[in-house]
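BUG: 3D viewer hangs when loading the predicted structure for this chain

Environment: internal workstation, default settings.
Expected: structure renders.
Actual: progress bar stalls at 90%.

Input used:
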Amino acid sequence: MIALIDYDAGNIKSVEKALQKLGQETILTRDRERLLEADKVILPGVGSFGDAMENLKNFGLIPVIHEIVERKTPFLGICLGLQLLFERSEESPGVEGLGILPGEILRIPRGEGLKIPHMGWNSLKLTGNGRLFQGIEEDPYVYFVHSYYLKAADPGIVKAVTEYGVEIHASVEKDHVFACQFHPEKSSETGLAILKNFAEI
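Structure tokens produced before the viewer hung:
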């Protein structure tokens, strides 16, 4: 069973539908015991870094997420869920992230012809042998919606990058923790293949 963490962040239902399309049993919950019992856990979401951390705190989910990670349960952050795994974000100065992975979230710099938020399809350059990308062709196109991007402190965890005025660390993997800045649930067959790879880890 795959548990989706319910912390009142948008876009959770579309992730749930994509997993159900793959035949995966899913549950949307913020209950500690149910999250700890799950075979895999996903932290999805769109919205503001500060508001999301406040919600996780208010629902008592921060220690639960750390416990899930310590138990080595496969864990996937999507979009805002990726950003929350890191230490801090320029979007919400002074707000601490979960700090599970080292790095920070920066604002995409303005540039000629670049719209912010970055919305749309971009190709990924796969770097390293990421388990989410097994069997996926080189330079796959995936769907992004974001104004802030990850700069990971450890280049060794970065498994995919994209360019949008700056190099964006688009997917990371460390041990049993995975994260994507893009939305696999909105990325057509490529995205479903990525979710399927996660479900089969």
